[in-house]
Design a protein that fits this description.
The protein is an alpha/beta fold. The protein folds into 2 domains: 202 residues, Isopropylmalate Dehydrogenase; 161 residues, 3-Layer(aba) Sandwich (Isopropylmalate Dehydrogenase), CATH 3.40.718.10. The chain has a 10-stranded mixed β-sheet with strand order 2-1-3-12-11-4-5-10-8-9, with helices on both faces. Strands 6-7 form a two-stranded antiparallel sheet. The longest helix has 33 residues.
């Protein structure tokens, strides 16, 4: 079996963090004799420079054929005046592959509460998953700009809400069985439709407790009482904003991973941070979010044991005090990635030793 992974390093720090994630995946594959094939393709601003479009046909074809897609970041000031922005490639990829649900987890690792600018007693034990609808709302609506007047179409349909709601409820059922719909139903007609549809779907998940919170109140509660949330379900624009705010809870946007999924085989995995062109090629970016995204990719391709090992190795490194500059440390991007691979090796050796011991004991009792 070949696991095909399309790499879209993108722009800015994207290539640096993606490379560290790739090296971790390659190391795990080598140690466990998995046949993993990596294929890198132009995407975003660099694709505009080379091909005149942020999403070349060859890149899209490779993504369609892949078992998983690992992306770095797109965009930067170099393309501010381009006829089409690099971010259009990301929107186009989500639309073409039917990636309608964005999953953004954030948790505070025990012992690392001090990394958060929020008081430790507030963030201790926080573990939140934002499920964001990804292909509707204002980002995809009709856009008009005519002199001093502009508008963005903000449209949702029942099927769009139903499909992402089922993903959120299923996730809540596997977690703490709590789901919060975040909306602005006191103002927006679309939000009132969301409430009606989600309320109907909730009857099929009686074990999941559901509540409803306006987006402004949710933005405040994420900071003042993050433990009140388990799974947050919300629309595209609100989800984009809240999931970036979520990064303050564990301490850095560089720590957070995400997955964009749909009903097909293809799924996209990426850190939630931007391209940070001001630090590109300086080897100082935090690759933790990219590595965590690679762990989500492993879950997607049926390698949950290796996903657990990769997450555990990442936690080990963070808890050991090997931190990049955004977390107050002095480790470079490449040094951090190397430290994760060292911890992978240690954990794999431990697993192999236990399996060997269990095998010996079974032989002795046979």
């Amino acid at each position: 079996m070949i696991i095909r992974i399309a790499l879209l390093p993108g722009d800015g720090i994207g290539p640096e963090v993606t490379e560290q994630a790739r090296l971790c995946l390659a190391y795990l594959a080598e140690r466990r004799e998995l046949n993993v094939l990596f294929e890198a393709h132009d995407f975003g601003g660099i694709a505009i420079d080379r091909h005149g479009t942020p999403l070349p046909e060859a890149t899209l074809a490779a993504c369609r054929a892949a078992d998983g897609i690992l992306m770095g970041a797109v965009g930067g000031r170099d393309w501010d005046d381009a006829p089409v922005r690099p971010e259009a490639g990301l929107l186009g990829l989500r639309s073409a592959l039917g990636l309608f649900a964005n999953l953004r987890p954030a948790r505070v690792i025990a012992g690392l509460e001090h990394l958060s600018p929020i008081k430790a007693e507030l963030v201790r034990g926080a573990d939140i998953l934002i499920v964001r609808e990804l292909t509707g709302g204002a980002y995809f609506g009709d856009k008009q700009l005519d002199g001093d007047r502009a508008s963005d179409g903000f449209v949702y349909t029942r099927p769009e809400i139903e499909r992402v709601a089922h993903i959120a409820f299923a996730a809540a059922r596997r977690r703490a069985k709590r789901l919060t719909l975040v909306d602005k139903a006191n103002v927006l007609a679309t939000s009132r439709l969301w409430r009606r549809v989600v309320g109907e779907i909730a009857s099929g998940y009686p074990e999941v407790a559901v509540d409803y919170v306006y987006v402004d109140a949710a933005a405040m509660a994420l900071i003042t009482n993050p433990r009140r949330f388990d799974v947050i379900l919300t629309e595209n624009l609100f989800g984009d904003i809240l999931s970036d705010e979520l990064a303050v809870i564990p301490g850095s946007i560089g720590l957070l991973a995400s997955a964009s999924t749909g009903t097909g085989k293809a799924a996209l995995f990426e850190p939630i941070h931007g391209s940070a062109p001001e630090i590109a090629s300086m080897d100082v970016a935090n690759p933790a979010g990219a590595i965590a995204s690679a762990a989500m990719l492993l879950d997607h391709v049926g390698q949950s044991e290796l996903a657990f090992l990769l997450r555990a190795a990442l936690d080990d490194v963070l808890c050991s005090g090997v931190l990049t500059a955004d977390l107050g440390g002095g480790a470079s991007c490449s040094e951090f990635g190397a430290a994760v691979r060292t911890r992978i090796d240690a954990r794999l050796c431990r697993v192999d030793a236990v399996r060997s011991l269990v095998g010996v004991n079974r032989g002795m009792t046979a």
